[in-house]
Write the structure tokens for this entry.
Amino acid sequence: MTEFIRAIDLSVARAAGGMREACGGFLTTFFKAITLSGNFGLIFIVAGVVMLFFRRTRKIGVCSLLALLFGMLFTNVILKSVVARPRPFADTTSEFYSLWKAAGSLKEGSYSFPSGHTTAATAFGVSLFIVMNKRCSWAFLLIPILMGFTRIYFVVHYATDIFGGLLVGGVAAVIACYIVKILLKNDKIAKLLL
């Protein structure tokens, strides 16, 4: 099973590397801006806080911030420590290391599984998808996909770390939105949020 997972991770990393080479680094600056914007989930936290200031988006802000909190707890406090998976570039004799060097050697600390950037992006994007009008909220599902891809592009995560982040962030968003839905049944809380 481990060899199968490694083969998937390596195939995806090679494909991202091939895309990077084919584009001649054209996308690298754009992807770097996206991946760095996800550091500490800061861009998503700021967006959630801004939404709290407007009555029309307050419920969305509460859901997204709660989802980000749950995602951070599941990922950074529990899973990263329990799984303790090294980063792809940690083994300097591996092909992942060579791909990481070719991608610009973006520095990352802590453990690899699941991707914290992807967890945060998914928690935020899925929260917005759940709470907002479905006619336009589908676009928010592109946020975690794009963020996750940038993490593979720079070889700071394995593809399976991204899948883990998508799962954890999605679960965190569903739990957060369900809790907010329950809380809104209380008239005092509903008056505060709506």
